[in-house]
Amino acid sequence: MKAPQLKTIGLSILYLSIVSLLLTPLFMYFSHDVEVLRTQYPHAIGAKQGYPQYEMKRPRPQDWVTLSEISKYGKWAIVLSEDWGFYQHSGIDLNQIKVALGDMIEEQKFRGASTITQQMVKNIFLYQDKTLWRKLHEIILTQKVEKVLTKDRILELYLNRIEFGPDIFGIKKASYHYFKKHPRWLTPKEAAFLAMLLPSPKRYYQSFKKRKLTDFAKKRINVILMKMRMMKVISLEQYEAEKSAALSWEKD
Question: Which pTM does this prediction carry?
Fold first, then answer.
């Protein structure tokens, strides 16, 4: 092959790469109509790799609860545990991304550093693989969602579709599964337990399975209760009482 032909092929590849880099973010931005999240609900239509797949439609699913139907403890335990700055940031927590990048460089381990909005976007619209491509897609859609929805609507969508254990999706199912009650009646410690599950629900489910909190679960629940105390979600008296209270299913 002659040099001019090689040059032409090389330039063509370069141009295609540039066009791809320019069009990829646009594709990701317009890949989903997030406007439907205002008035419609994600209904499970199947599963992939153990996670539900959704389509947006009406009416409200039977397993759905509005934010006003969840106790303030259920709401704030999870917000303070998962995304302390949720009501302040615009969907992306730059400090957490910086920490995650540091971990990835030092430990060669990819960590999500996802905000509540990012997790909601991933759960409803995207797949679960931990890749940089998916992460970029998630970040772009997150910015779009933050412009369209209120923080309360984002939180409601998140709480109704997050995983709380094996095949336990949504705070209503979780509340009935673990405590046999509607989420409006969750106590501070029950809410802290649910929040404790979220980083790795299948793994931390062991506390419930064995009917005894692991040492990690005890420490994590106490940290979440302390955060609730710091933010005045609960009083000092409530904190002291809840810290020593046993969950309904714990063995003596």
Answer: 0.87
**CA–CA distance, 232 with 251 (Å, rounded to integer):** 30
145 within 8 A of 126, measured Cβ to Cβ: no
- Topology of domain 165-246, CATH: Penicillin binding protein transpeptidase fold (1.10.3810)
> For the segment 178-189, what is each residue's pLDDT rounded down to a tens digit?
999 999 999 999
Kindly report the CATH class assigned to 28-57+84-161.
mainly alpha
Helix, strand, coil shares of the chain, percent, nearest 5, are 60, 10, 30
Residues, the chain: 252
Q: Which of 231, 229, 237, 199 is nearest to 217 (CA)?
A: 199
Helix (H) or strand (E) run with residue 112 in it: none
Write down the domain spans for the chain: 28-57+84-161, 165-246
Beta bridge partners of 53: 46
Between the two ends of the chain, the Cα-to-Cα distance in Å is 80
Q: Does 165-246 match 28-57+84-161 at the fold level?
A: yes
**Residues facing residue 48 across a β-bridge:** 51
Q: What is the pLDDT of residues 203-226, one digit of tens each?
A: 999 999 999 999 999 999 999 999
Confirm if 133 and 95 have CB atoms less than 8 A apart.
no
What is the rounded CA–CA span in Å between residue 173 and residue 70? 12
Q: In 10 A of CB 10, how many CB atoms? A: 10
